[in-house]
Design goal:
four-stranded antiparallel beta sheet, alpha+beta
């Protein structure tokens, strides 16, 4: 009497595993999770700068000038509310947003007179972002209008500013 063996051979299982591995590799390359995370972080940075920008405009409406900064101010990691000049930010934005990467910071600078300001961040995909300054290099106003020494934890390659200036 002949018995029929049920199941898969070792060769059949290896072929199926190889096909599944190949499909997973193609999917991983197509999705590129690292680039997706960088895009997410950059979107977070842009959103944070917009929130700070709204707070600065509210401050300007109340006081007639933007908060003073004798030198560039770096928003501390942790996003804790701090004072710029003599005014607390808690009435306008609390807590201050923080960069998604702890080593990076948002930089703020307001020239004497408080009639303009500059806010900067370091985008991870700056060369691929159409909103980045100078094709991903440092924003042109740094070293020109804005004093050197502003640090975003990297190259300040994305900026927003008051309506009467350009980053």
């Amino acid at each position: 009497m002949k018995t029929l063996a049920k199941g898969f051979t070792l060769i059949e299982m290896l072929v199926v595993l190889a096909i599944l591995g190949l499909m997973a590799g193609v999917l991983l390359v197509t999705l590129n999770p690292s680039a997706q995370l960088q895009k997410s972080n950059d979107a977070h940075r842009k959103s944070d700068l917009e929130a700070i920008q709204r707070a600065l405009e509210l401050y300007y409406q109340d006081t007639g000038s933007y908060p003073a900064s004798s030198v560039s101010y770096q928003i501390a990691p942790g996003g804790t509310a701090v004072a710029w000049g003599s005014t607390s930010w808690s009435a306008y934005i609390d807590p201050l947003p923080k960069d998604p990467i702890a080593a990076n910071k948002y930089a703020y600078y307001s020239p004497a007179g408080g009639q303009s300001y500059y806010l900067y961040a370091n985008l991870q995909r700056a060369g691929n972002d159409p909103g980045a300054c100078n094709k991903g290099l440092a924003c042109a106003s740094i070293g020109g209008t804005v004093p050197s020494g502003i640090s975003c934890g990297g190259v300040c390659n994305y900026g927003v500013s008051s309506p009467n200036t350009t980053p």
